[in-house]
Design brief:
This protein folds into 2 domains: about 120 residues, NAD(P)-binding Rossmann-like Domain (Rossmann fold); about 100 residues, 2-Layer Sandwich (Alpha-Beta Plaits). It has a 6-stranded parallel beta sheet with strand order 3-2-1-4-5-6, sandwiched between helices. The radius of gyration is 21 Å and the shape is elongated. It is about 35% helix and about 25% strand. The longest helix has 14 residues. The chain is an alpha/beta fold and about 220 residues long. The chain contains 9 helices and 11 strands.
Length: about 220
């Protein structure tokens, strides 16, 4: 049985999530007050409905309580988003994922009991700042408790050395998530590399650790 998701709020962000979920084979219900936005996505998802997402009766009528998760991406009004989240909680939605614009909204949603809160603008800002200050960084994902995952072009100081010799965990207190090697002009994941794996020029490494430890690794090997 396919997973069932609903996306409420069909702006650029919400529409992108709905389409991506549908591309991956999920049954997606796309919801917005705007009939135009609903019509624009109707051919890309299983269901597209125009309704007032702050109405408990309207949400219940769509059986949202049966969804595996509901994504709330109402960006025009934080008050409407909060009321929508409240109504979804009242009808027993298993998992609610909401979009927060700024730390105050995130704190409010956290106090409402939400465990999955998206801040795409902040993530984009963090990525751009990281890439500008550390040009070798290709991707950065900030995680709770001052941890992060970064994807970085392997520094030249690591070329020709084995992972055992580099000692990421012992010397830098960080972990290698995976390694991508170039093949035919494209990079491909090499699974979980062993200690004897050699880092070559052009490799991309994905590492995890405390932000301060990751930054220290980058500074030392720049």
């Amino acid at each position: 049985m396919n997973s069932k998701f609903a996306v409420i709020g069909l702006g650029v962000f919400g529409s992108a999530i709905a389409r991506k979920l549908a591309e991956r084979g999920a049954d997606v219900m796309a919801i917005d007050e705007s009939e135009d936005k609903v019509q624009s996505i109707a051919n890309d998802v299983a269901f597209a409905v125009s309704l007032d997402a702050t109405s408990k009766h309207a949400l219940e009528a769509q059986n949202l309580g049966d969804m595996d998760a509901v994504v709330v991406s109402i960006g025009s009004s934080f008050q409407e988003m909060l009321l929508c989240v409240f109504q979804l909680q009242a009808i027993g939605v298993k998992q609610i994922i909401a979009r927060a614009q700024g730390p105050v909204q995130r704190e409010i949603l956290t106090k409402m009991g939400l465990k999955h809160i998206l801040s795409p603008e902040q993530e984009v800002a963090n990525n751009i700042a990281e890439q500008l200050t550390n040009p070798g960084v290709l991707m950065c994902v900030n995680l709770p408790d001052d941890h992060e995952i970064i994807e970085v072009t392997a520094p030249s100081k690591l070329h020709g050395r084995t992972l055992q010799d580099i000692g990421l965990r012992k010397k830098y207190n960080i972990n290698l998530v995976t390694l991508l090697k170039e093949d035919g002009g494209e990079h491909h994941i090499k699974g979980v590399p062993g200690p004897e794996t050699i880092i070559d020029n052009g490799d991309i490494i994905m590492i995890f650790g405390l932000t301060k430890d990751v930054n220290r690794f980058i500074e030392i090997n720049a």
